Amino acid sequence: MSELTSKTIAQLRDGFRGGDFSAREIAGAFNAAVEAGRALNAWTVETPELALAAADVADAARGSDAVQPLSGIPLGIKDLFCTEGVASTTGSNILRGFKPPYESTVSGKLKAAGAGMLGKLNMDEFAMGSSNETSAYGPVISPWKRNDGGNVALTPGGSSGGSAAAVAAGMAPGVTGTDTGGSIRQPAAFVGISGIKPTYGRCSRWGIVAFASSLDQAGPMAKDVRDCAILLENMAGFDVKDATSLNLPVPQWESGLSSNLKGKRVGIPKEYRIDGVPEEINTLWDQGIAWLKDAGAEIVEISLPHTKYALPTYYIIAPAEASSNLARYDGVRYGLREMGVKSLDDMYAATRDTGFGAEVKRRIMIGTYVLSAGYYDAYFTKAQKVRTLIKRDFAQAFEACDLILTPTAPSAAFGLGEKISDPLAMYLNDVFAVPASLAGLPAMSVPGGLDAQGLPLGLHLIGRECDEQSVLNAGLAIEERAGFTARAEKWW
Ligand code: GLN
Description:
Elements: H1 9-17, H2 23-36, E1 43-46, H3 48-61, E2 74-78, H4 105-112, E3 116-121, H5 161-168, E4 174-179, H6 185-191, E5 194-197, E6 217-222, H7 225-233, E7 265-269, H8 279-294, E8 298-302, H9 310-325, H10 344-355, H11 358-371, H12 376-400, E9 403-407, H13 423-427, H14 434-439, E10 443-450, E11 456-463, H15 468-482
Helix pairs in contact: 2-3, 5-6, 7-15, 9-11, 9-12
């Protein structure tokens, strides 16, 4: 990594303001890294000219009141944020060529805060996946390799796989991700970076391609906890265009950062000691407990008794909502249209058959099934009831603690192709991440260490509704103690 691309957002911001380097130099360094990193397939669209244009605005503003919080910072945007005039494909063939005439609220806020855009980031199709292999644009390859001398291509995780690889490979100092059931946290863990999914409703969903509307949340991924705080402050906020958006002021998370956890109680859920999880993951979890104790926290055992129902519940609710949301891709309004058929119905069917990949079709079928007359109560209503019980588990646990610590994922990054033909094994990746999504709680992954194969492992913090600050602070306490500085060795 060049000197500039290895810096954090805070360092770039401060260096730009202090005159150590120009915004144009920053944008140029990252544009070059994006070009040099094409072998990773992390980007669906590159927009070097937009990064440079924002840099010129930043350079002209330097030293004046016109400097914005993110002036001089170029970012990568996951490809399901609609970006005005720039292709937004959500990793799908059905939106190939779709250039939205509008900008999502979150990416618009980042732009208004002065950030430039390096390009759009590859992702699992419609954010359905945990390995980035369901993308119509091909899988993203992780910059990391196992230390066994082999050359197996690994997944950067998913669905925000391009986002994760871009930060880990020094192609962007920070990126947007979205998390419906783990898609910010699991990829962050797989590549040794930080990522936070805020409380449901913190970030507007307006202009983000919908997967499962009651779960989807945008959030940042970056090299460290401070950078996540900086980005989140500039992404969050009430939006009249999203009825589920929280009408609350945005806290100053960066200036609120403190790794002193005195007075905080951290809960360790006994149901998260799951059979079959490698010993290394449990050892790191114990290490995380020791780090938080060292930072002043009190550790308490808690119970989240409905944990074992979280994945099955998620895999009813998320596909149900997806099947409804994806009904709009009919070949009439957006993107692909298959012609050469006899009737309108045939056009719908042909468009959807060509446009959607196998995982998306699987979810549409599951979702349609669980919502159909005769099965609705048995599956969908039941799942909604269990979701309430899972939420209640957390509410009860938060009477005894302020934060919850767990591993982020049940394994380190796996090889491309290893799980794609076994959907259940793939779905298990999110076993620790999904409960917080169902409960709408803020949750973060921070790097904790490396496994025996030299691959990053993450620790996962869950907080009370709207208490992102405590999550970030505990993340910082871990970051300071873990001293995680490992980076993927450059081979691309
Ligand atoms: N891997 C999970 C899924 O495929 C979560 C995806 C996400 O959070 N977008 O549904």
